[in-house]
Amino acid sequence: MRNTIIQCEQWLRDQVAGAHAKGIVLGLSGGIDSSVLAALGLEALGQDSVLGVIMPCRSIPEDEQDARLLADSLGLKTERVDLSGVFDSLCAGIGGNLDPLTQSNMKARLRMVTLYAFAQSRNLLVCGTSNRSEYETGYFTKYGDSGVDLMPLAGFLKRDIRAMARELHVPERIITKAPSAGLYEGQTDEGDMGFTYDVLDEYLASGRIDDPKAKERIDVMRRRSEHKRKPIPIFHQ
């Protein structure tokens, strides 16, 4: 795993140098994926070239606590932008009762607007935190957490991310907590998906899966989210 980490860090340095950027910026959620990305960035680029932005938006307080735990443990520079008021104003302006999924996607897109403001003003590249398990099933927001310059982790399964987290000395509390988008108390990724990351990772890695219902659900998610991974269709005369 250390060799893989070294290769990923060199790739990250090459991407930043090729863009003539000063470093990277990422959303710091308190989860394992953004924690691993922050640690990778710090090893690859140094403390002066990595910025983590904490962006509560009607969020669970524990997520910000974990984000600060990670930042303190690694010496990561952070900024904090509370998007709750902006989110409330946008919801009020649109009117009507917005369903939870729409609200969740709005939050992700507001966070990307914020990250690109930091990126443009400081000559940084926006790094996405999606891993392969999420990316292949479409468990991300189009033009939200996928609207980035780089996706350093999108080639790694969730189990790879856990291994990298331990190698990079991410706090154990962050490694072992249930992955969650923090939409509400008790919400988890696996609960939303209807299967575990272990089942998903094995299926993506080897094609093996024992649960036919999980297989069907994964296959459906991959088909329905294909549009998220494709370039924007363009009509040509």
Can you walk through the features of this model?
This protein has a 4-stranded parallel sheet with strand order 3-2-1-4, sandwiched between helices. The chain has a single domain (2-178), classed as HUPs (Rossmann fold, 3-Layer(aba) Sandwich), CATH 3.40.50.620. α2 crosses α7. The model has no long low-confidence stretch (mean pLDDT 95). β1, α2 (32-45) and β2 (50-54) form a beta-alpha-beta unit. The radius of gyration is 18 Å and the shape is globular. It has 12 helices and 4 strands; from the N terminus they run αβαβαβααβααααααα. The N and C termini lie far apart (49 Å). The protein is 56% helix and 7% strand. It is an alpha/beta fold.
Query: Which consecutive residue ranges, at least 5 long each, have pLDDT under 50?
Result: none
Instruction: Provide mean pLDDT, rounded.
Output: 95
What fold name goes in the CATH topology slot? Rossmann fold
Number of strands: 4
Helix content: 55-70%
Dominant shape: globular
Helix and strand sequence: HEHEHEHHEHHHHHHH
- Sheet with the most strands, sense and barrel status: 4 strands, parallel
Biggest sheet strand order reads 3-2-1-4
Give the radius of gyration.
Answer: 18 Å
